[in-house]
Amino acid sequence: MQTYVLLTRLTDEGAKTIREKPERILEVNREIEALGAKVIHQYATLGQYDFVTIIQATGAMAVARVAVELGSRGTVKIETLSALPIDEFVARIQQK
């Protein structure tokens, strides 16, 4: 499994949904898992993004499916980053 960071911004419609039904966030997390990814951590954030979610998925296509499905609803805009474990990153950089 690979790790990905989802940086999420709510649209006006998404903010309205969260205000009226905050538990919707947890429902969406279950939907993410039904799409084949696993939510590892999630944070509500202040600033440019409303949520930072760390997920694991089998690869880029699996996380793309999550992003497209959630984004198609019109309630969020998602930026996806691939995340590399720092120990693995350092080890690969040191390889000659």
Walk me through what this model shows.
With 96 residues, the chain is of the alpha+beta class. It has a single domain (2-94), classed as Alpha-Beta Plaits, CATH 3.30.70.260. It is 43% helix and 32% strand. The chain is built from four helices and four strands, in the order E-H-H-E-E-H-E-H. A four-stranded antiparallel β-sheet has the order 2-3-1-4. A hairpin with a 6-residue loop joins strand 2 and strand 3. It starts with a strand and ends with a helix.
Task: Throw out a few tags for this protein.
alpha+beta, four-stranded antiparallel sheet, 4 helices, elongated
Q: Which strand order does the major sheet show?
A: 2-3-1-4
Number of strands: 4
Average pLDDT metric: 96
Instruction: Please outline the major beta sheet.
Output: 4 strands, antiparallel
Can you tell me the overall shape?
Answer: elongated
What is the CATH top level name? Answer: Alpha Beta
CATH topology name: Alpha-Beta Plaits
Low-confidence stretches: none
Cα-atom radius of gyration: 15 Å
Question: How many helical stretches?
Answer: 4
Strand proportion, as a percent range, falls in 25-35%
The computed structural class is alpha+beta
Our count of domains comes out at 1
Q: State the order of secondary-structure elements, H for helix, E for strand.
A: EHHEEHEH
Helix content range of the residues, please?
A: 40-55%
What is the name of the CATH superfamily?
A: ACT domain
Annotated CATH architecture: 2-Layer Sandwich
Distance between the termini: 26 Å
